[in-house]
Every structure is written in structure tokens, then in C-alpha cells.
Amino acid sequence: MSETKKALVLGATGGIGGAAATALLRHGWQVTALARACRQSGQPGDPLANVKWVQGDAMNAVDVRAAAEGVQAIVHAANPPGYGNWARTVLPMIDNSIAAAKAFDARLVLPGTIYNFGPDAFPHLIETAPQHPTTEKGRIRVELERRMETASHEGTRALIVRFGDFFGPVPGNNWFSQGLVTPGKRLRSVTYPGRKGVGHAWAYLPDAGETIARLLDRADGLEPFARFHFGGLWDADGTAMPQAIAEALDRPAIKVWAMPWVMLGLAGLLQETPREIYKMRYLWRETIRLNNSKLVAFLGEEPQTLLPEAVSATLKALNVE
């Protein structure tokens, strides 16, 4: 880049937000991160050591606007913790980011999910696939993206990059580090949420962050409302990920158990988190693959780490033995 660009990342303490911030720093951007509790910068080996941390709340429009002053991009990776409280927080947060992007003529970037889609769009998802979600979370994500598209018609540029299930060298709100393995523990078995024979798309966080950075480096070539699907690491039948975990730990005979969905459903009668997780089980019962042909045509390639390397690095960083 001929001049230093500035970006604001909301949710930099999380998986995809942290990965995007790390990649942007590597690409020469100056990165500001808004967080309720600021991290200490400058720790040896910290990939976010050069981030400027600003204390604030994505639910507070004044905080978001103040942190966004002078930036060319706002990465909206803020999510409610866990699976709860979506109805009261997701849309107000995106409204605040849209307002800040409009105020400073910044491009608003959203890491998208497959929650937006229902069975009529499966198994191969393209950017223009119909969005007929079957869950409340999906309907909220559809409305979130609709507001971004409306803002783009009013002059606020937007970019949505849609990913499969995240995993990577940072513990986070994802299936890998909260379901398949437990950070800091010796792994005695793998609990896999999907059915054998059903394909599943995984997104390695460093690759996802790199993709966002490359797209922003070429933002002048993007549409006002740009959407891309990230293909990621494809597990064609639900066996590749458990096998990669077993091989990385050099325990080929490790047991693989099915997710006890019935138990989650019963627990959900009393608790919000298992109830919300249970509602998303349909995403593991059908093959869902994101078509990345548009992304590859624009960038020339999709950043992609091989599955064994990605899983090995993730397990090591999560201190899983």
C-alpha cells in the first residue's frame, strides 16, 4: 500500500476478530481494537502486540464512533458471548457500526455465517443463494445483513465474507475448542457433532483473517455491497477432522463419539445455552459447502493451510495433549 491504512476491529479478543486484526497488522495496517476490558500491548510473542486498544462497548454508539475516527475499515466481529442474548444485542451493535462507517466513510466488514440459510439453499451455498433460515438466530443474521445492504445503497460500502465453522490457535466460541476438544486437557476421545457421511466446512482462523486482509488491500476493486464465500477446509464425510486430530496427537485409535443431541435437548428445557446449541443441530445433519469461486476469481487463490498442519498448530496452541 502506498500509504498506511487504519482499521477498527470490534471483537478483537475473539477468534475471527483477533485473526483479522493479526492479518491486517501483517499487511501494514494500523489497527485499533475496541474492547470492554483492554489488553496489555507489547507482550513478547503476542500477535496483537501492536494493536491500539481502546476501552469501550460495541453496544454504545458513542464508543464505536470515537474509536472509528479516521479509519478506512471497520471489522465488525463483535458477538454476544456464547449463544445467548442475541435478540437484544446483535442488531443494535451492527447499527452502531453502520453509523460509524457512514460517519467516516469507512468500509464495514462482516464475517458472515451460514445461519442465514435453510435447507432450500443446501448443499452448495453461493453468494446469491436464497436466505430462508429456520431459526431465530438465522433470521437475526438475515436482518443484520439486510441493514448493511440498505446502508450500501445510501453510500456506506460493505463487505461480507462468509465462513464455515471456525477453529484455530485461540480458544473461542467455536465447536472445535468447546466441543471436539478441551483446551489444556489430555484428549481421551473426540465428540463429533455431525453424522458420518455428511460433509462439513471448516475455516482455519489464520486463513480467514488473511482473506479479509487481502480483500481490504484490494478494496478499490470491490462492489459497494460485496459478498464472498470462503471455501475453507472441506471434510467430505465427517471423518477427516477427527482423523486429523488423532494423527496430530499420534493416537490413531482414539475413540470418536457422536454428540449426545438428545441430552442437549433435555438440558435445553432448563438452560439457555444448550437450548440454543440444540437449535443449530440441523447444520450438522446436512452436507453444506460454501462455493468460493467468486473469491478465487477476485484474489487469484484462497488462503489455505493444509488440514494436518492447521489441526496440529491448533492443538499445540490450545495445549491439548
TrEMBL record:
Name of the molecule in the record? NAD-dependent epimerase/dehydratase domain-containing protein
By its UniProt entry, which Pfam families does this protein fall under? Answer: Epimerase (PF01370)
Q: Where is the NAD-dependent epimerase/dehydratase domain?
A: 7-218
The organism is Sphingobium xenophagum
Source organism, top-level taxon: Bacteria
Gene Ontology terms for molecular function: aldehyde dehydrogenase (NAD+) activity
Write down the PANTHER family for this protein, in alphabetical order: NAD(P)-BINDING DOMAIN-CONTAINING PROTEIN-RELATED, PROTEIN YEEZ
| GO annotation, cellular component aspect | cytoplasm
